[in-house]
Model the fold of this input.
Amino acid sequence: MLPVIGNDSALWVKKYGKVALGGRPGNFELYSKFHDKWFSVLAYSPEKGKFATIFEDITPRKKAENDIKKSLKEKEVLLRELYHRTKNNMQVISSIVRLRARLVKHIHTKEILKEIENKIIAMALVHQKLYESEDLSKLNLKDYFTSLISLIKNTYGSNDKDFEIKLNCVDLDVLIDTAAPLGLVINELISNSMKHAFPNQLSLIHISEPTRPY
Done:
């Protein structure tokens, strides 16, 4: 029995008619509501205005594909939740370090705690960006650097009038193994500059990032 009857027959007739009138064979997959099955269809025209068709029940394969998609979706949700929880846990640790630093009177110790806080912020931001990214394995380096610089400046209570940073960076997506160490490098550059370079006047830092993937 050809799957061209029932409420979905018009779609099948349209496919067959195109082959019969055009003379070009067609290979397609369609779902039949009447049969509640998926079919792989090969249709060809033995002569003008006529068609012949061979179809195969591929319902088991389609169900398996849907099961895989469902499983992948569940894993994606779990991975996003993992990134989100990791980011939240790092923010808690960062807050603890910040609170502890307020109780410390020794300047050198305060600086050490500030450095630790900024490193934690850099790592937490990686997980936040991965959580927000469509591709859970990569993040945009330019977006990450921009956010990281802003956060570091805020930790020092700085504003754009005190400290100017120009970021020359292409839109490049990188893996977490690349983004994390680069974030720590940027953190060191910005932090050291804000602490030591031109303490009484405007500081200008120009950060460039290669145009090729690492």
Observations:
- Strands lie at 26-32, 37-44, 52-57, 138-140, 163-168, 173-175, 203-208.
- The radius of gyration is 30 Å.
